[in-house]
Each structure stands twice: as C-alpha cells, then as structure tokens.
Amino acid sequence: MTPHLPGRFLVVAGAAAAVAAVSVSIYLNPPSAVRAQALDDRRMRALQQMNFAIRNYYRAHQALPQTIGDIEKHNGLSPRLDWTDPVTHRPYDYGVVGKNSYRLCADFAADSETAENPNAMSIGKHHKGHDCFEEDVSNGE
Predict the structure, then answer these.
(1) What is the model's pLDDT at position 134?
(2) In 3D, which of 36, 61, 47 has the Cα closest to residue 124?
(3) How much is the pTM?
C-alpha cells in the first residue's frame, strides 16, 4: 500500500491546486463583474455607432439630426442598429447642445479602466452610472 501513497498525494495536491486556482479566478473576476463589463462594452459600441451615424447625417445634411429617429428616416445613411440599453431596453440619450455639438448618454455598470479607442473619437472613458459624452462635428471633419 505504501507504493501508491505518493501517487495519491499528487492527485490530491493537484486537485487542491486546481480548486484554489478556480477560486482565486472567481474572486478576482466574479461572474457579475464580467457580465457588467460585457454590458458596458455593448453600450460603448452602440454609442460609437450612434456617433458615426450622427456624423454621417451631418455630412449629408449640414445639420445635426433633431432625434435619432431622423437618422433612420434617411435611408442609406446608417443601417438600423440596436441603439437601446441591453438591460433596460430604453433608447440611449441623444440631444443637440449647439449648432455643431450634441450629447450621447448611457447608464454604465462600472467605471471604465481605459478608453475604448481614444484615437477614434472623444467617446472613451466612462464613469459608473449616468455618463455623457459631448461631441462636436466640427472636430475631425
């Protein structure tokens, strides 16, 4: 029976190490945090798509759309995408701020660690809760 003791010890030690590794992984990245990050990523992609569509509309009409629905009325400018929050299913906030500026807002589950794509537009880092990004179509034209 003694010859099998080292093998059993290795199996038990390996199983304990695997359980510890999984436990640490779950502790460091709980499923709820991973899900919240994935939802915030979807929100950011939607806002970036909206930003792109608004800029396309502005180039075509030399004016900002009064509502996001105005973009959808003009075929060929933007494919209809899902511009609603993945949890509440409410549309993201859009509002004209000035002749060349507008605001896009969403409710985020957590603060972002880094800007999603800082070279693409000013929409990048966000804060937990209701956060807005003010854009100016005269920038980057």
Answers:
(1) 92
(2) 47
(3) 0.69
